[in-house]
Amino acid sequence: MPVLWLFLIIVALSAIGFVAGRARAYQSAGGDARNLHSLPGYYGYNVALTALVPALAVLAVWLLAQPMLIENSVSKMIPDEIIAEGSNRSLVMSDVRRVANGLDLAVSSGAMTNDEVNALSTDTSDIRATLGSIGVALGSDVSPEVLAAAQSYRSKSYTGTLVMTVVVLLLAIGGLALAYTRTHKDFRARNVVERGVLGLLIIAASLAILTTIGIVLSMLFETMNFFRLHPWTDFFFGGTWSPNFRGDSDLSILPLLWGTLYISFIALLVAVPIGLFAAIYLSEYASNAVRSIAKPLLEILAGIPTIVYGLFALLTVGPMLVNVFGRGDQGLLGVEWMSGATSVLTAGVVMGIMLIPFVSSLSDDIINSVPQAMRDGSLGLGATKSETVRQVIMPAALPGIVGAILLAASRAIGETMIVVMGAGAIAKFSLNPLESMTTITTRIVSQLTGDTDFASPETLVAFALGLTLFVLTLGLNILALYIVRKYREQYE
Amino acid sequence: MNQMTSVEKKVNTQDIKISASGVQVYYGDTHAIKDVDVEIEDKTVTAFIGPSGCGKSTFLRCLNRMNDTIDVCRVEGTILLDNEDIYDRKVDPVQLRAKVGMVFQKPNPFPKSIYDNVAYGPRIHGLFKNKADLDNIVESALRRAAIWNEVKDRLHAPGTGLSGGQQQRLCIARAVATEPEVLLMDEPCSALDPIATAQVEELIDELRTNYSVVIVTHSMQQAARVSQKTAFFHLGNLVEFGETGQIFTNPEDPRTESYITGRIG
Question: Which residues fall within 8 angstroms of residue A432, CB to CB, at 6 or more apart?
């Protein structure tokens, strides 16, 4: 039975449960809702949730766990000998899954019966041709071991799904029955539903946290694979980045880190003053009418996809900078410092523009949270607005603003599309902002989208880079939160 | 309420410091102050009393043009400080506020050291010649605000670390350090406990020797204790203005009597 049907049946059961529970509660109260402990709806929800939630939870866990378990047991059936040179177990397993899915398709399209599939053997029939005729293309002939594994895969999946269906249905019906029999006018359905809601909220909150942990773990495993193939000293302390698809590459993060930090620094140099001044204007000087127009306009900048910023860098800012700093006598300055449109400065300036609304809207909130009493106090002593801003508002808002800048910095470090298009691809240490450089994120993209073998250090290095980046931005964010908390002025 | 002390309080006739006539204040469409005439004397404590929302704080904020910082607020009429119209085009509200200092309802020390809080006004207005001179200004302001002995050993500790009463006296010192001619106080004791209130009230009485003090208060006892002149506001109107003793013992207007005896407000 397809999972969708199972799901619909559970939902239908819980809907029936809702109506039945409500009706039973009414009945136990003699038709007068005032005799009930809770509103009648609560009894309905209680029955519906008791039927729905455990069944759905088991369904979800089962769907996640079953393929893993089956894969594990089937994978043991494949002897090491049939794994070809240059291939590995996971590639063979994907063949097994493909064959198994193909056989499923053959049965459902009527090309074969279930018994025929179970009786198949590589000696008697050409499975590649059979499957090819129903649209499943295989890369090579099917070996007997793979066929056996696929057949076992099929039968185990079939049994697993059958057991799952039964268990889930039993759980749903059992929950329904239990909650239905407990429904009585003195049953505290309202409190039970409240606890259920609490549980749902907790699950939602922990999912986000668990996902983060999952991301870190998956990166960590691949990173460990990388360090098994490549010396960590080269990664952290080497001086060159030159991936070589024949292997034996220099894969050091330092040149990439330098590019990342340099571009981020230029971005902050652009974003912080402009964003901060915009925030000061909007929160301290602008009239309500101006603010109500200017603030949303500024925040629109934050909604522009970064790829568009990348295009802007490549097509507008880069050539403009070349016009100023390059092209020899035809250029504005008459110098020949910059040849291509991609450079640290291009990417930095455009990224800075992207960060302006980020800095300004965070700073704006922080400046607004400085109590009006501070402004009144300063103005009442005969200070002008700018004196008030410089000497009272800014010192009071500084910790928050520093936090905002650090958050902006961690966004700059993790930014990808702008640097992919604007910064270039050359990994090197250089102080010249008019040269191309590359960043960690750019290299992750190029290492993972290449044609190389997934198990090579040249590909796996992407995970090590990603994890380093994650640790870096996580550290910055924690520092930012710490500063904001520690130095926040405690106003009542 | 000890009304005898109010009656016996010595009242000297002084020069007129601030003279307001025909003042109207609008907040958007709301007519907050209706045609108020008041004459505030020099070296005198004038109290504004009245029920909440009667416009006494609004009127106070007109006297140093603090209402200018509120977009929707509009002031009409004339207010003369030393016979000069403070709403005249050529008057700089920033300069005016240096002359007419203000202390607010809630103590609002800046998040700076005690010293820097007091030195804020003198620094902005360049009122000192050198560091020693500034030290003197800070010390004398803190002395006049009767807080010197409590803070002299920790002048560089943050002003926000003081107790509520100390913070309010620090704010008074901060206002005094700018050498104002008039000191406006908007319910300066409403956030303070009785002991701190007593200290601030004592201070107000001392400040009278140098400044013209205008105080808005909710407490009629406080008005009776500290002021020589009292103005009673009701629903945006100035109902009665006169000697404090007279207002509290023998009010002319029935509304004033109702208020001070607790029937309205």
Answer: A337, A344
Task: Tell me the pLDDT tens digit for each residue of A37-90.
Answer: 888 889 999 999 999 988 998 999 999 888 888 888 887 777 777 676 666 677
Q: What is the rounded distance in angstroms from the CA atom of residue B68 to the CA atom of residue A218?
A: 60
Compute chain B's Rg from CA coordinates: 18
B130 touches chain A (CB under 8 A): no
The C-alpha atoms of residue A418 and residue A433 are separated, in whole angstroms, by: 16
- The CATH number of the structural domain formed by B3-102+180-260 is 3.40.50.300
Residues 6+ apart with CB under 8 A from A480: A402, A403, A404, A406, A407, A410
Q: pTM (2 decimals)?
A: 0.74
Minimum CA–CA partner of B71 in chain A: A287
**Residues in A touching B109 (Cβ below 8 Å):** 377
What is the spatial distance between Cα B223 and Cα B241, in angstroms, rounded to a whole number?
A: 13
- CB-nearest to A387 from B64, B124, B160 is B124
Whether complex ipTM tops 0.90: no
A270 class by beta-carbon count within 10 Å (0-12 exposed, 13-18 middle, 19+ buried): buried
Domain boundaries, chain B: 3-102+180-260
Distance of CA A386 to the CA centre of its chain: 43
- In Å, what is the CA distance from B19 to each residue of A65, A441, B105, B165, B264? 85, 70, 24, 32, 29
